[in-house]
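Quick bug: diguanylate cyclase output formatted oddly.
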Amino acid sequence: MSQAQVDVSEVHWLMDMFQTVDVGLVVLNCDYRIQVWNGFMENHSGLTPRQVRDRYLFDLFSEIDEDWLRRKCDPVILLKNRAFTIWEQRPYIFKFRNYRPITGSAEYMYQNSTIFPLSDARGKVTHLCFIIYDVTDVAVSRIELESMNGRLKQLTKTDFLTQLFNRGHWEENLMREFKRLKRYPHKSTLLMCDIDHFKRINDTYGHAAGDVVIQSIADAVRKNLRTTDIAGRYGGEEYAILLVDTPIEQAAILAERLRQSVESLTINYNDKALKVTLSLGLAEFNADMSEHRQWIEASDKGLYMSKANGRNQVTSYQPE
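Here's what came back:
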């Protein structure tokens, strides 16, 4: 085989690899007009090399942020350095649909890319070459893992039945607020409430009915919360609400509104209409308290006073 035939064969092989390689290869001139467009780009864009030849990149692909891409490419042209883009910073350069069955949940192809300069014989940069990598598998796996971690983190602080904060996470918030109040002179109030005669509901209708009642009261608590309030399920049928930057007089108004909304509530369970009431206790933060548990105990005393005085009422605890 002659040298000329060898050279032709090598060019043929290179062109074959260029068209079949599983990465996108794009060459632009310095005016951002497309000069080279390989098979990967054709397959994912639906545009042939002939259709894109000498076309202005940003006219063909309006989803590309022109200012951003020019800022990435300017140092490549001026300094002859490579530039890189990663999907964590920008999901893609070319918005191609994702067709991979394994990562079918992704709407589009996540991409990393490398941009490097192409120079003429005198060393002047005349073109830019883009290598586009499909990293959808990696991106989707990472996103799903982070989502699972986020859900797991949420589960560790949320009560499953009520979807309010669980006792541990709620109490952490209370401790933070207690420390803040010890340092700064603000007024915050703690509200504890308990479902009246809850054991009677369980004994009469069963624990499934009790769960429905607990969920319904949690919904009523949520509807009466302000954005700054922090509510949690403190015990079986007991709820705790931290009313931040709220003096006890204002907290009593909110507590009464919650009591009335529960009193007027009709809970349907197996074609039966259940009625329940709440007993509520309030305690304002007191600078004499040395730990947050004293605040809980004070609010509990208000709750027990409501129980002792006939239930279905709000009692504000006042230290002697």
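Actually, after a second look the formatting is fine. The chain has two domains: 3-143, 158-316. Closing.
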